[in-house]
Structure formats: structure tokens, C-alpha cells
């Protein structure tokens, strides 16, 4: 999944997902460009604040999702009462587990 990241979070070797255009529509960098520290500085000078990069699939262990679900239930002191609430709990647990994993991978 592609993701939008701030320029300060660019890591050497990330790949641009879409053409990067300036405020008047000129292509600054084409999609597929492999980003490096020089790109980061150039984009800052052009006042470009974020870019869309090619995402890397993050595998999340089911044990991590289960632990996150337990944490959410504990934090909220709540139990789902119907299928909609169970689906919501699943979605939030997966999102938080994914976010924690990607933040850890990106050293955030």
C-alpha cells in the first residue's frame, strides 16, 4: 500500500509512487524515482512538504492483533454487544497493530 510521508521522514532508497509536480504542474520527479538525501534537500527548497511513496507490505502477526484487541478492551472497559461492534473492534485492533508496526519500522 502506498503511503504519504513528510519530507523529513524520507529514508534513502524509498521509491516515489506518483509523479511529483510543483504548483504549476511541472514534473519535479517522475514516479519510480529512488529517493536520496539530495532529493530531500531539493524538495524542501521547493517547499514540497510530503510525497507519496511505494509502500512495503507489513506483515502483522495474529498474536500482535489479539494483544492489541485485549489492550483496547481493557482501556475502554467495554465488550462488543453485536456484530457491528465486533467488526469495529477488529478494524481498530488491526489499524493500531499496523500503525505500531509501521511506526516501529520507520523509527517514529
What's this model, at a glance?
With 108 residues, this protein is α+β, with helices and mostly antiparallel strands. The chain is 44% helix and 12% strand.
Describe this structure in words.
The chain is built from three helices and four strands, in the order E-E-E-H-E-H-H. The mean pLDDT is 87. It is 44% helix and 12% strand. The protein folds into two domains: 3-53, Molybdopterin biosynthesis moea protein, domain 2 (Alpha-Beta Complex); 62-105, no CATH class. The longest helix has 23 residues, at 83-105. A two-stranded antiparallel sheet has the order 1-4. Strands 2-3 form a two-stranded antiparallel sheet. The protein has helices at 37-45, 62-76, 83-105; strands at residues 3-6, 20-21, 27-29, 50-53. Strand 2 (20-21) and strand 3 form a beta hairpin. Helix 2 (62-76) crosses helix 3. The chain is α+β, with helices and mostly antiparallel strands and 108 residues long. The two termini are 19 Å apart.
